[in-house]
Amino acid sequence: MSEPGRTLPDIDFATFVVSLGSSAFFHLGVEAPPEGAEIKPDLALAKQTIDILAMLEVKTRGNRDEAEDKLLSSLLYDLRIKYVDALRKPGGGSAT
């Protein structure tokens, strides 16, 4: 529930995709947790979020504009690279 009097921005496809991407980057440990929080990367959650974005890419094919196509494909590319990098780090292990 949002705070009284607080308005949230409208959600469009790009905002939704960026939100999911931010969540995946957070779970990969690329984005820092909120100040004072000590949260470790969670590769399983990162993989699940990347898989959700990949599913959206397939299910919305033909219904996106060019900018949305570029956003989604570049975001997925970046996330997949960071995910593989995280798996290769010592202690990265497997998230499957």
How do the strands and helices of this protein lay out in sequence?
Blueprint: H1 13-28, H2 43-59, H3 66-88
Helix pairs in contact: 1-2, 1-3, 2-3
Describe it for me?
This protein is mainly alpha-helical. The protein has a domain at 16-29 and 40-88. The chain contains three helices and no strands. The longest helix is centred in the last third of the chain and has 23 residues, at 66-88. The model has no long low-confidence stretch (mean pLDDT 88).
Report the span from N to C terminus: 33 Å
Q: Give the helix/strand class.
A: mainly alpha
**Please, what is the oligomeric state?**
single chain
**How large a portion of the residues is in β-strands, by DSSP E?**
under 5%
- Give helix % range: 55-70%
What is the H-and-E element order?
A: HHH
Return Rg in Å: 15 Å
Query: Number of DSSP helices?
Result: 3
Report the strand count: 0
Backbone shape:
flat
Mean pLDDT: 88
Largest sheet, in brief, is: none
